[in-house]
């Protein structure tokens, strides 16, 4: 076995035989995951209890497709991180700034609702939902968190479009078309 070896760029790596590693194919697979997750109905997770034939109670959990979609786009973002340009960075900063502003706005609305509620209403909220107001957070039993998720999903769709534009500027789609 030789003692010396050459360090090569990841882009130029090819495994022995087959297609080997290709950043283009990785980008295509990640983009497809985003598209598949984006095509599903957006719903929050929920848990149901089912009794099996032996009488054991099991909790069945369904995934939160909203979070899954956003995580897929975050993975796509991570894959393309080395290729970010100024145009993408500006768009990304704008998207994140809008998400933060909406979060802060909805936190203020929820806080105001809590402050305006009578002590009796607050007591009912606590008994039914275990709800109490916490600064800088939204409670899942209130509509504000769902409203925030809907807004955030739209912003993540915008982020996905920016990532697709970035991949096109980097010519990743051209490479794939030539292979096909």
Task: Describe the structure in brief.
This protein is mainly α and 180 residues long.
List keywords for this structure.
180 residues; mainly alpha; two-stranded antiparallel sheet; 2 strands; 61% helix
The number of helical segments is: 6
Side-by-side strand order of the widest sheet? 1-2
Tally of separate domains: 1
Structural class: mainly alpha
Encode the helix/strand succession as letters: HEEHHHHH
Radius of gyration: 23 Å
Uncertain residue ranges: 175-180
The average pLDDT value, as a whole number, equals 81
What is the approximate shape? flat
Provide structural commentary.
This protein has one domain (10-175). Helix content is 61%, strand content 7%. It has helices at 23-39, 65-79, 86-116, 119-129, 143-169, 172-179, and strands at 46-51, 57-62. α1 packs across α6 (172-179), α2 packs parallel to α5 and α3 packs antiparallel against α5 (143-169). The longest helix is centred in the middle third of the chain and has 31 residues, at 86-116. The two termini are 37 Å apart. 13% of the residues are buried.
